[in-house]
Amino acid sequence: MRNAIVCVVLAFFGLFANLAYSEDGTSDLQAAVDAVVSQEAKNPWVPAVSLSFTAKSQYVTGNGYANGSAVQEDLNFSWSFGFYADLWHSGGSYRKLDESFADEVDYTVGFAKGDFNLAISYFDLHELGVGRGDILDPSLTWSHMFDIGAGNSLTPMVKVENAFTLPDWDNRWIFTAGVTHSLDLGWQGAMLSNTVKVVYDNGTRATASGALLRWRVGLDVPLCEDKSVTLGVGYERYWMANSIRDREDVGSVEMSLTFKF
After folding, report:
1. Which of 22, 92, 100, 184 is the most exposed place for a label (fewest CB within 10 A)?
2. Do 138 and 231 share a domain, yes or no?
3. CB 221 within 8 A of CB 231
């Protein structure tokens, strides 16, 4: 998509500059596009940007709280040296903003390098901007992808979170371990994935503790050869241990559209 934007701009000016073809058959316009994109790729201060839109039949938090149907948007900036910033919004699809438990705005900054991802998030929950009941969530994640051949890969992961509920700073530890199997379907980078995760939530003074099982199957299909636009569909299922009395087994269907700039 970025290449296309640069190409259109240079093509406009090229009408007046009378760009010619070089001896090897490539146009000066294409050479200019390649030069701009190459220079941009070399600049570590120019971030990669992605924007996604997702519709879910149930917005379920990572530790199993179901909040109803939702439409969600995610804007992410990432730099080649590892720093990233993310702005994520969830809105209940059947009520006005700030009237549904699916309403949420998350602000995240982090540093990802190699197999490790260190992040801190602020979750502005229902009653946006009030502060009471919001969560400050530092986390550390390890993951590593193993190529097992024939378009298959396995990615195990472990995540540790220490979530603080404001303003009382009542904290809960959340431990997640899982593995994702991905299969390259061989068509323009389309990927089929299966993920299984076990989550342990030690709860707070006001919430139950226990383990839960998460399973997700998803299909991501690039709509452009450069993968600048991707359509995703998925289904996720949560099963709760008997000790988690404040949550129930739940499933969710989703569809997403992601743009990369």
Report:
1. 22
2. yes
3. yes
